[in-house]
Design brief:
Radius of gyration: 20 Å
Shape: elongated
CATH class: Mainly Alpha
Order of helices and strands: HHHHHHH
Strand content: under 5%
Number of domains: 1
Number of helices: 7
CATH superfamily: MFS general substrate transporter like domains
Largest sheet: none
CATH architecture: Up-down Bundle
């Protein structure tokens, strides 16, 4: 979903709604990759060290609605918003791909990764269609910067829904960890004596 905003709509939005020229809008949009350059290896290392993938996924998912909200404000910091997107852009994959490899049997890993790519790309395509339709329907453009607000609401609500799903996954992971700990404790024989 955020790929649709960053790659298709962000430059025009930065120009029309925030008054930037093309060079400045492109420069601010590049902050996503600048942040990801440093955040990706750092978060990959941190996830491997700590091993708590679900909280990291929830944190990464939380950054997206915050980033969209910051950028949707008339005087919001576009630089901060794009850096937050870059951190999320790094953190979510740093968790999802290794976690998939841990949860899916190796004889089905290729299928699982392929399905994840299909779902991700279908989501990007769908988000582009919806956001483009909203911009057309509300006349978004240089003459009507307020016409971008429905698109920003769409991206905010979609990313907030993603955060809710990440929280549900975290809760499920915590439940599984709790059940595994209890089953391990039940398997330990009581001390004699």
């Amino acid at each position: 979903m955020i790929f649709a905003f960053r790659s298709t709509f962000s430059i025009k939005y930065f120009q029309h709604a925030h008054g930037l020229d093309l060079a400045a809008a492109g420069a601010i949009n590049s902050y996503v990759f600048l942040a990801a350059l440093f955040a990706t290896p750092a978060f990959g290392w941190l996830c491997d060290r700590i091993g708590r993938y679900a909280p990291f996924l929830a944190f990464g998912a939380l950054l997206l609605p915050i980033a969209i909200a910051v950028m949707a404000l008339p005087h919001g910091s576009l630089g901060l918003g794009t850096v937050l997107i870059g951190i999320s852009f790094s953190l979510v994959p740093a968790v999802m791909w290794p976690l998939t490899a841990r949860l899916v049997p190796t004889n089905r890993l290729g299928t699982a990764l392929g399905l994840m790519w299909v779902v991700q790309n279908a989501g990007i395509a769908g988000a582009n269609v919806v956001a483009g339709w909203l911009n057309d329907a509300y006349g978004a453009g240089a003459a009507n910067p307020a016409g971008y607000q429905p698109m920003m609401w769409y991206f905010f609500l979609s990313s907030a829904a993603g955060f809710c799903f990440a929280l549900a996954l975290w809760k499920q992971a915590g439940r599984r960890r709790h059940e595994a700990q209890h089953s391990d404790q039940a398997a330990i024989p009581a001390p004699v004596g």
